[in-house]
Amino acid sequence: MMNEKLYDEMDWARIEGLVYSEEDDPHSFLGATKTEEGILVQTYCPTAKSVTVHVASTGSSYPMDMEDESGFFAVLLPGKKIPDYTLEVEFTDGSKHSFADPYNFEPQIPETVLKKFAAGNCWELYRYLGAHPMTINGTDGVYFAVWAPHAVRVSVVGDFNLWDGRRLPMRRLKDYGIFELFVPGLTSGALYKYEIKAKHGLTYLKSDPFSFQSELRPNTASIVKNLSAYEWGDQAWMEARKGSDSKTQPVSVYQVSLATFRVPDGEGHVPGYRELAEDLSDYAAKMGYTTVELFPLLEYSEDDTMGLRPEAFFAPTSRYGSSEDFRYFIDTLHQKGIGVILDWDPSHFSRDLNGLSGFDGTGLYESDDPRQSLYKPDGSLYFNLKSPQVRNFLVASAVFWLKEYHIDGLQLADLSKLLYLDYGKTYGEWVPNIYGGNENLEAVTFLRTLSTVTKKECPGTILAAEDASDWPQETGTVSEGGLGLDYKWNRGFRDALIEYIQLDPIFRGPHHQQLIFSMVYNYSEQFMLALSYEDVNEKYGSMYSKVPGRKRSKFANLRACYGYMFLHPGKKLLAMGNDIGQKMPLSEKTGVDWSALDHEENVQFQGYMAALLDLYRSHPALYSLDYSPEGFEWINNISANENMLVFLRKSEEETLLCVVNFSALAYEDHKIGVPFAGKYKEIFNSDDIAFGGDGNVNPRAKSSKEEECDELPDSIRVLVPPMGISIFSCTKVEKKASGNEQAKAAVRKRRTAKKAAGAKVEEPKTEQKPQDKEAKAAEPKTEQKPQDKEAKAAEPKTEQKPQDKEAKAAEPKTEQKPQDKEAKAAEPKAEKKPQTKASGARAGRRPAAGRRKAAERSLKEEKE
Predict the structure, then answer these.
(1) Average pLDDT for residues 196-222, to the nearest whole number?
(2) Which of 114, 222, 550, 810 is least surrounded, with the fewest CB atoms within 10 Å of its CB?
C-alpha cells in the first residue's frame, strides 16, 4: 500500500530527466517535500545498494525503496514537519557513507548580487561563484556556484562522488544562468570539476573558472580552498599603501620569473614559493629595488608559454606550492619593504579544453565568431568584452589579486592586442566596430571600468601597461577621456637607447637625436622606462652582447646606459640578470646566470647597480617630479660631437647636475654651465675604480665662476669620465666680490666715499700763506661773456664749438707769479685713491682674483 502512495506522489517525468542527465532544477523534487501523506524523501544515488533515512531527533531509521534500478530511492516519513535527517548509503562495493541531504538547502547568493552580476558590476564576484567552505544551518560543507547560462545541465563531480555527474546535479537560478549547490560534509582540499551537458548533447568536464587552486600539471582538477585560512603579517605595509602615491615615490622594479630565478638543483628540485620568498626578498632588498614584478603566475598548463596563456584567473600556479604558500611569499616581501606587481593579461586565454574555451557549449567567455575570438599567432582566444558578465569576471579577477593576495599592482601585457580589432590580422580576418573603425570600443570601456574600480576598491595600487602603440592618453584620467592607467612602458625610449648604445662610440654623433627625443613627448604619458625580459631573450640577446667593444669597454657602456636610464624622468624596470651584466640571454629554460659573479668584472658591475639604485632611492630629485616639467631642465643637449648630455634633475628639496658621456674620451677641465652660483660636489661617478672604472672622478667640490657657458652666467670646470655619468649636488651660495652681495655693497660704499674725496684733490684744504692770499687777490678776474654761457649750456658733449674757442682766446691769461709756484709746491700732495685704479681697470676688466683682493682690502680699510 505504501509503494502505491509513493508512486502517486513521485513526478516520474522529472525523474526521467534526472536519470538522463537533463534536469536543471533537482531541488524541486529531490530531498524532503511536504505532501498530504507525509514527508516525501527522494534521492538519486547510482551504484547504491541501499539507502536509509536516519532522523536525528527521534533516532528512528527508515529504509528507502529503490523506485528505479538506476539508483532512485524514495520513502514517506510520518508527520507534517520536515525533520533533520541524514542519508546512510551502502554502495555495491561494500563501502558506507552518511551525509546530510544536499537538496534541502536554499540558494546562498543574494538577489542583489545576482542583479549586479547581470549588469556586470559585482566587483567581488569571487566571493559568491566558485567553491566556498561554509556552514549552513549548523551543517558544514562546500557551496558551489558556476555561470553556464546555455548549459542543459551542470553537476559537481570530484573525488567525493566517483566523478559521477549523475549524483550531484546543480540547480539553475532562473534569469541569471548560474548553477548552484551546497554539498554537506566536504572540506577544504577536495578535488572537483563541473560536468556540463551542452544543448547539442555533448557532455564534458570543465575546471572551475573561479577556483582558488588547481592541481599540478598535467592534472587539471580544481581544489577547494578557504580564502581566510592564512594569517597575514603585513598589516603595516597595507595600511601605508592606502595613502601612498607611487608617482612621487621611487619605483625601481625587478622583473623576475620564478621558474628561472633559481634553477632546479641536480636532483630536479624546483624551489617553491616559501624558498623563493627568502631568496628573492633578500636579493631585492640588498640591491635596493623597491618592487618585484612576477612573470604570469595565473595557473597554466604549458610550461613553454611561461604563463602567457592563463587558464585560471583566480588561482596561482601550483608549480611552486599552494595558495597559502603564495600568500606567504607576498607577505615575506612586504615585511622586508618590497612591493609586488603581478603580470596579468586580460586580453586572451588558453584554448585548453579544460578551461574557459566553449565553456557551456557556446562561446561564453569568447565570441562565437572566430574573426573576433581567435588570436592567430599562438591560437589563444580573445575575451568577449561585449558581454557585461565577462567584463565583470575580469574586473573581479583584478580586485581579487589586489585584495585577497595583497598584490600591489598589475602589469597589463601588450594592450595593443586588446585595443585594436585588427591586431595581427589581415583584411577579412577582423570585424570593424559600429563606426567602421579598428578601435575596440568595448575594450576601452573595460579598461576605464578596471582603472576606476581598482582605484576605489584598492587604493594605493597601480596598473601599468605594456603597449607599443600610440593610443592616446592611456595614463590620462577617465574624466578627461583617458584610460585611467597609472604607467605606460616607454617603448620609444627603450628602442632608441638600445639602437644608440649598439653603435661604436665614434659613430654615435650623427645619432645624438635618439638620446634626447624622448624628452619631446615625455609628459604626454606617465612613462615607465623598462628593459624587460622581451629585450634580453634568446631572440634579441643580452644587453652585454648588444654593446660594442671588449669586456672592459662593454661594462663601461652598460654603466653609462643604465646610468642615463636612471637619471631620465620616469619609473624604472629591469629584467633579472641585467643587474649583473650576464652574457647569456633569458629563456624559459635559462634564467639568471649566477655563475657570472665568479668574475670580478661582474661583481663590480653588480656593485655599481646597487649603488645606482641606492642613489635613485635616496635623492627625491630623481623621482618626485618625474611627471612635471619642473623636475627636468636641459643644460646642454647639442654636444653631438662629444656624445655628451648635461641636464638638471630637480625637486623641492634639491637640484642635481647630471653629466652623461657616451664617448670613449675623458674630457679634462671641461666647462659646464650651472644654474646658479654655488658649490658643486660630485656625489656619484660611474668611472669609480670600485665599479671597474679608471678613476676619472672629481674628488673636490667645484665653486662656480662668473664665466658664461651654455647660455648661463656661471659655470664650473670638471673632469668628465669616458662612457660614464657624473652627478653633482648643487649648493647655492650668495655671491661675494667674488660672489658675496654684502661685500659688494661695502665696496660700492667705499668707492663712493673715495670718489667724493678725489673731487677735492683739486682744492685741498691746506692753510694759505699771506703771499698766497695776495697773489690770489692780485689775479685779474676773468668775466664770462654771454656767448660763453650760451655755448656752455648748449654743449651736449665735451667737444668745443667755435664760439667756445673764441671765448677761450678772449680770456686774459693769468701769469703765475713766483710765489704762486712756491705755494703750489708747498701744497700737500693728494694721496692716490683706489678708484683711480678701478676706473683704469674698466677698459680691461680686472681678473677675478684681483677683484677679490681689492674687495678684501676695502673691507679691511672700512673696519679700520
Answers:
(1) 95
(2) 550
Q: What count of other Cβ atoms lies within 10 Å of the Cβ of residue 820?
A: 17
* Average pLDDT for 379-389: 94
Type of residue at 37: E
For residue 454, which phi and psi values (nearest 5 degrees)?
Answer: -65, -35
What percent of the chain lies above the pLDDT cut of 70?
84
Please name which of 84, 67, 58 lies closest in space to residue 2, comparing C-alpha atoms. 67
pLDDT in tens, 765-801: 444 444 444 444 445 444 444 444 444 444 444 444 4
Dig out the grid coordinates for 600 from the structure.
670580478
Distance CA 340, CA 333 (A): 8
The position carrying cell 562565437 is 368
Beta strand 462-465 with 409-412: parallel, antiparallel or unpaired? parallel
pLDDT of 818: 44
Residue 615 sits at φ, ψ, to 5 deg, of: -60, -45
**747 pLDDT tier (thresholds 50, 70, 90):** low
pTM: 0.83
User: Quick one: average pLDDT of 291-313?
Assistant: 89
* Residue 436, phi-psi category: left (phi > 0), alpha (psi -120 to 50), beta (remainder): left
Starting at the edge strand found earlier in the chain, the sheet holding 380-382 runs 348-349, 380-382, 374-375
Distance CA 335, CA 235 (A): 9
Return the H-helix or E-strand segment holding 681: strand 678-685
Cell of residue 829, nine digits = 700732495
For the record, the C-alpha cell of 729 comes out as: 649636488
Which amino acid is residue 351, in one-letter code? R
476 C-beta neighbours (distance < 10 Å), count: 16
CA 95/CA 50 separation, integer angstroms = 11
3-state SS, 178-238, equals EEEEEEECCCCCCEEEEEEECCCCCEEEECCCCCCCECCCCCCCEECCCHHHCCCCCHHHH
